[in-house]
Specification:
Elements (H helix, E strand, L loop, with lengths): L1 H16 L30 E6 L1 H4 L9 H12 L4 E4 L7 H12 L3 E7 L2 H5 L4 H17 L3 E5 L9 H18 L2 E3 L22 H19 L2
Helix pairs in contact: 3-8, 4-6, 6-7
Length: about 230
């Protein structure tokens, strides 16, 4: 009896310290493989053309991809000119609004800045001296950041009166001469006032009008792109 008891005790000790019974050994399920990381999109290192404007630059009333900055990017790509267009047009912006957000434009480190603001100032009757002061401050900020500036001029509907319109138009000419920047005398040249190229509001170009605006902008940019 004692030998049988000792044998049983040794058997139990062996089960506790040795290999588990076969029934307790279960195959370990392979851990699911982690999804492959998505490669980061390479940074666009092309120099930037920042379009800093209002609803005309933003493409108000147009389908996506129809604004003149969108068309400008496609035109540059088609010509093999390595610049990226950053559209910073905001509908309704005045020159004061632009001045308040210019740090965002400077953060893009623009090589060229197309400044298209002031139209809403005129439409709202903001004193011309304020418009002039704000545009001058933005031109100085862009130039101090190393950007070459293209100033896009605007004008006003005839009902604002010839004297006011004349003084408003002169702001762009005077600033272009003072700061020696490229001037587009009227961004909507050949487009504004023509119902074939304007939306029903008479203020914003339609798709065909945007194509004409882009051609005008490209013509002004070409000398700067070759530098």
């Amino acid at each position: 009896m004692r030998s049988l008891w000792l044998f049983a005790l040794l058997s139990l000790a062996g089960c506790g310290s040795g290999e588990q019974p076969h029934a307790d050994r279960r195959p370990t399920a392979p851990s699911p493989s982690a999804p492959a990381p998505v490669p980061a999109k390479p940074a666009d290192t092309r120099p930037a053309i920042v379009v800093f404007g209002d609803s005309i630059s933003a493409g108000f009333g147009l389908d996506a991809g129809q604004s003149y900055p969108d068309l400008l990017q496609r035109d540059l790509d088609r010509r093999g000119i390595a610049f990226r267009v950053v559209n910073m047009g905001v509908s309704g912006d005045t020159t004061q609004d632009g001045l308040a957000r210019i740090s965002l434009a400077l953060a893009e480190k623009p090589a060229i800045a197309l400044l298209e603001l002031g139209g809403n100032d005129g439409l709202r009757g903001i004193p011309i001296a304020i418009t002039r002061q704000n545009l001058a401050a933005m031109i100085e900020d862009f130039q101090q950041a190393g950007a070459r500036v293209v100033l896009a001029g605007m004008t006003l509907p005839p009902n604002y009166g010839p004297d006011y319109i004349r003084k408003f138009d002169a702001v762009y000419r005077d600033l272009a001469a003072r700061y020696k920047v490229t001037l587009i005398p009227f961004l909507l040249e050949g487009v504004g006032g023509d119902p074939r190229y304007m939306q029903h509001d008479g203020l914003h170009p339609n798709a065909e009008g945007a194509r004409r605006v882009e051609a005008l902008v490209m013509k002004a940019l070409e000398p700067l792109l070759r530098r």
